Amino acid sequence: MKKLMFVCAAALGMLAACQSDDGINNKVPKEYQPIELTEVQTRMASESTDFAFRFFRVANEVLGKEPQNRDKLILSPLSASYALSMAANGAVGTTLTELTDALGFSGFTMNEINAYNQKLVKELGQQDNTTILSTANSLWMLDDFQVLDSYRAALTQHYDAEVRREERTKAKDAINAWCADKTNGCIPEFLKDEPSGEVMLLNALYFKGIWATPFREEATQTEVFTNEDGSHSEVDMMNREDSYRFAQNDLYAMVRLPYGNGAFALQVVLPQEGVELAQCIEALDGAGWKALQESMTWEEVDVKLPKFTIEDYRNSLMDVLEAMGVHEAFSNAADFSKMMESAMAISAVDQSIYFRLDEEGTEAAAVTEVEMTDIAAPRPDGVYEFHVDRPFLFLLTEKSTGSILFMGKVTKL
């Protein structure tokens, strides 16, 4: 039985944990300029944001009871969207419709989807000269296996994919070297074993940035974090009082912590006292998120934010995607005839994550794999307290398109 494996790797790295900082600490941020979107792309950006919240909400319902996800759950919506969009280029009929509907791209043509992704690939990394965000794509064909020329051309044209051919016995080392290079050493060994598929598609995102206003290390103190189950943990709590974009309603408060010139930010959602985090997750969607962004105002905020690291973390997303309406692509009825002549179906979708938060900034990495198998209310004026000492939600976002690179929850530290 032949297998075809597609992989999307997103890596966001910072500081010396992966490699050097490339001197971005010494640069003066250029003035922020939003990415210009057409009317169609503006609608697609909105739908992509809604996909991110649906994706996380369904994952929280489907995966939340698994042991590794009881305390934390983190995903990369952008990584998943790239991976599934590239797979969708080879699909037709119901298989294509279910994939694009799940992504929020219902009613858009594949050309429009590709053009939007191409704009993200080319322009997201140009938003801030003090924050590095690079994108690299590659199509790997092992031994003598071939995809259709038209499919290869679509990925080359719209995703700037590098085409590579490799002997199977050498593929593991070559692909791991590519991943390590494109993620600045953050993902040095993506493949643990020799690949079982004939084709692999990889997308690597690399992010490197520092807070626009760093937290002072000497202000970090050991403080108490109240876990979702009522227990308490001692954590390293970062502290800073400053002017931040801030908003709140009856369910939660939110603060925006920018990197560099403000193009990218970590947005932290903290439930109001007595409100469960699950209520906030259920309430958030694309429209609500847009309204929340528009309601944010500059306020003096006393921020307490725990340092934390999430590593060696992996989830299967098959059940999540099925709950979002993707069925045929996983069955014998799958039609990927625009990808290759062989009858193929998706047999696995997995995502691995690394995420670290400290005084200087954020380091994160994600790998998304799609494997395919042959089948024949406001507070009074003053200083706002934003003490993240209980379960919270966080999103790493880009400002002009609203792209959500990472989204996660922490219920226990």
Tell me what you see in this structure.
It is built from 9 helices and 16 strands. The protein has 413 residues and is of the alpha+beta class. It folds into 2 domains: 3-210 and 309-374, Antithrombin, subunit I, domain 2 (Antithrombin, Chain I, domain 2), CATH 3.30.497.10; 217-306 and 379-410, Alpha-1-antitrypsin, domain 1 (Roll), CATH 2.30.39. The strands form 2 sheets. Strands 2, 6, 7, 8, 9, 10, 14, 15 and 16 form a 9-stranded mixed beta sheet that branches. A 7-stranded mixed beta sheet has the order 4-3-5-1-13-12-11. A hairpin with a 4-residue loop joins strand 12 (344-357) and strand 13 (362-374). Helix 1 crosses helix 8 and helix 2 packs across helix 4. The longest helix has 25 residues, at 39-63. The mean pLDDT is 87.
Write the layout of secondary structure elements.
Blueprint: E1 3-12, H1 39-63, E2 72-75, H2 77-88, H3 93-102, H4 110-123, E3 132-142, H5 149-159, E4 161-166, H6 168-182, E5 199-208, E6 221-226, E7 232-248, E8 252-259, E9 264-271, H7 277-283, H8 286-295, E10 297-306, E11 308-316, H9 318-323, E12 344-357, E13 362-374, E14 383-387, E15 392-398, E16 404-410
Parallel strand pairs: 1-5, 3-4, 10-14
Antiparallel strand pairs: 1-13, 2-16, 3-5, 6-7, 7-8, 7-10, 8-9, 9-15, 11-12, 12-13, 15-16
Helix pairs in contact: 1-8, 2-4
